[in-house]
Every structure is written in structure tokens, then in C-alpha cells.
Known about the structure:
By secondary structure, the protein is mainly alpha-helical. It has two domains: 1-87, no CATH class; 99-386, CHAD domain. It has twelve helices and three strands, in the order βββαααααααααααα. The chain has helices at 52-66, 75-84, 104-120, 123-127, 131-150, 157-194, 199-223, 226-240, 253-272, 280-299, 307-345, 352-384; strands at residues 5-16, 21-33, 36-49. A three-stranded antiparallel beta sheet has the order 1-2-3. The longest helix is centred in the C-terminal third of the chain and has 39 residues, at 307-345. It starts with a strand and ends in a 7-residue tail after the last helix.
Amino acid sequence: MPIFETSVHRITLPVRTKRSELELAIDRGRIIAARHARHIEEIELELKSGPTTDLFRVAKALERKLAAELCLKAKADRGYDLVNGNSTQAVFAEPIELDKRMSAIEGFQAIARSALHHFSGNADAVRNLDPEGVHQMRVGPRRMRAAISLFSKALPNAKTEKIKTELRWLTNELAPARELYVFLEEKIGPVAREIVPRRGGKAIAKQFADKRAEALEQARKAVNSPRCRALLVDVLEWIEAQHGRTNGANSDLGEFAAELLDGRLRKAQKDGGKLQAMTVDERHKFRIRMKKIRYAAEFFESLFRSKRERKILARLSKHSKKIQDALGSLNDFMADRKMAAEAAFQAPPQDGRARAFASGIIVGREDEQARPLLKAAAKEVRALRHLSGLG
């Protein structure tokens, strides 16, 4: 007995240009699983012959005229999502399978496609105002930007810079919803439950709950915008346009990955010794570099098969994440201070003292945590020195 059924009416039309032949299929129907159903209204484009630029030119025209959104999920996958009740839930990054015989640019394309699947797949979760969906849709562009940094020598500058700008725009549109969610759940929540009198905690919690709702709506508007729809198609076109490039990158992906990880690890080992003396901005930049190392370890994991290599990668990932988390918390404290101060200054007269008291407790607790966090990060940096290379 089938666990779900797909009922689709398809109309197929040929599309011809001077150089190309394409097939356009219009699908209308439903996916049915028990008492649940989801409508299908989609257009599929297939390039039969000719350059891929013509395929994307037609796709962009359809996106503009019909407000069509790129969907990379197959009907079967959507059927299983419907069965499992995951249709509008957050989508997480899938493991990436690479082969050492790939060229560096083929490896980049596989990684970039995974990142695009990651953030495009969370659009419905963001529309559903799911905080985890917002977080995952924000992580996707970050992974893409990390991949761009790692493979920068192989990528053309002009188009890549435009893609990075648009990815940064999407990340920034989603950021307030994520930051306010964490601040409300992890900082304000405990204070609101513990302090006496509770009026200040409740008032500040209500204030930031309203701000979070506004930020979630901002995220939903961004995902529904023409700019976001265009971004998805542009990113896919840009990924596919990289085929065959070398541009200074080692053509062997296995050697490229080992050299890249070794180089970044050595630099982190050298600079990490200065962690205690770093300024706030320098620590922030170091944290970003550690995040890219962690992403690189995840991206390239399938290339390293021996026990020794797996052990090095696992330790590199573990230490990098702990450094990133500790320094990330320190970085968050700066934003938290600003939000806590605004909560106190913008309070109405009747709640002014209570909110100021609650804000002061939040800032005070973070001050107590700052020194141990920096100490923990320094400990993990020292642990990196014991890692040998993968080359």
C-alpha cells in the first residue's frame, strides 16, 4: 500500500530560441498522504540543446512575470515530508559526498549546491515564522560565503562579489529574528523567572517578544520578496557557470583540500597565541576564521578516509566549534548590552526602575561569564597546536 500518492496533470510545451531548444512542463495536482494533501503548481524547465545561459534567461523571465520561486526539492521528497509532518519545518544541511579525483571547482560546485539546497529549502519554514527555520536559512548563506572564501582563487571576481552582496543582504534580513530569539530565550527568560519583583522581567520580556514578532515578519517579507526569488536563480546560474574553471586552484580536490586545511590550521595556531591581547574587532575576525575552518572540515570530511585523518578532522572540528562558540558568546554580549540599555531607556515611567533593574542583572551576569569564556577559548586554541597536518 502506498504511503503517499501524487496526482499531476502535465502540459508540455517546446520553447525554441535562436541557439537552444528547451522543454517547458506545467504541472498541476496534489500530493496526498492519508488525510493530508499539498497542492502542486510548478513549472519545470529542461534544456534539450544549446547553452545553459538560455535556460536561465527563460527561468528568470518566468520568475519575474509569474513570481515563481526556485524549488530544488523533488516531488517524492515533498511526499515524504507530508507523511512525516515536515512540510514547513526547518531543513538542516545534508552531508556532502566528494571524490578526491574531482577538480577543485567541481568540489566547490558540490558544496555550493548543498548550501543552496540548505537555505532555499527553509523558505516555507520562515514563512511559517519558525525560529529554527530562520536560523537554518541564515546558516545556508553563511556556508555558501565560507565556501566562496575557501575557493576564492578559482572564482571570477565580478559576478562572485555580486553574489556575496546578495547573500549578505539575505543574512542581514534574517539576523534580527535570530538574535532576538536567542536574547529572549537565553538571557531575558531566566531573569524574568528568577528576579523579585518580577514586574521588570515580565515587562522587558513582553517588550522583546513584540520585537521578535516584528523581526520574524521582516524575515518572512524578505523571503517573499522579488529580490530573494531572483537571488535563488542567480546563485544557481552562478554555480553552474563555474564548470570547467581552474583559475589558479589546484585541479586535484584531494590535494587542494589538504593544502587548504593545513594552511588555515597553521595560521590559526600562530595567531591564536595572541588571543588574550586581541581587541574586540580582532577577536571577531579570528572567530570568523575559525568558523571557516570548521566549515572546511565539514565540507571535506568525505575526502579523508584513514583513521588518522578522521581523528585529526574530528578534533579540528571540535576545537574550532568550541572556540567559535566561546568567542561568539563574547561577541553577542556587546549586542546584548545595547539591547538591554535600550530596554531601560525606552521604558515608560511606571516600569522604568523595574526594567533598568532587570537589564542590569542581564549585563551583570554576562560580565561574570566573559572572563571564563575567554579562558575557555584560549584553552581550545592551545589544543590546536597539537594537531598535525593532513597533507
